[in-house]
Known about the structure:
The protein is an alpha/beta fold. It has 5 helices and 5 strands, in the order βαβαβαβαβα. Strands 2-1-4-3-5 form a 5-stranded parallel sheet. Helix 1 runs parallel beside helix 5 and helix 3 packs across helix 5. The two termini are 25 Å apart. Its EC number is 2.1.1.177. Homodimer. It catalyses: pseudouridine(1915) in 23S rRNA + S-adenosyl-L-methionine = N(3)-methylpseudouridine(1915) in 23S rRNA + S-adenosyl-L-homocysteine + H(+).
Amino acid sequence: xxxxxxxxxxxxxSWVKTGFNEYAKRLPHLNLIEIPLRKRSKNADLARLxxxxxxxxxxxxxxxxxxIALDERGQVWNTIQLAEQFTYWMREYNTVALLVGGPxxxxxxxxxxxxxxxxxxxLTLPHQLVRIVVAEQxxxxxxxxxxxxxxxx
Length: 153
């Protein structure tokens, strides 16, 4: 299975790149697709910017991909439940696309396109950190499925 992590934001701090890359090299089918964050100014139309970023995200989704939106109103899974979801995705789909919005979250169109919504936490997390947490949790789920010693429950 191929996993596309489609995120709003480029030019991440080095700690974000390092953190993500650490897990991406362990999970080689994880691909990061960055959508440029549109410039926010004091009088910016944030809804329009969010919509434009959403359009670019939707265009980046591979044909036939199963789409999961990272959203605060999504399902919260523990590690075992995520591993079960991961197993299902591997069995049923060639490509999974995970969508991570920018500072205002995902556009309505992205949320409507998603077949599933996943919430990492009841906390609000910065979108830069989300890509690292998602990569680590996917790797943890993979390690659990494959009896790799990384996950020690």
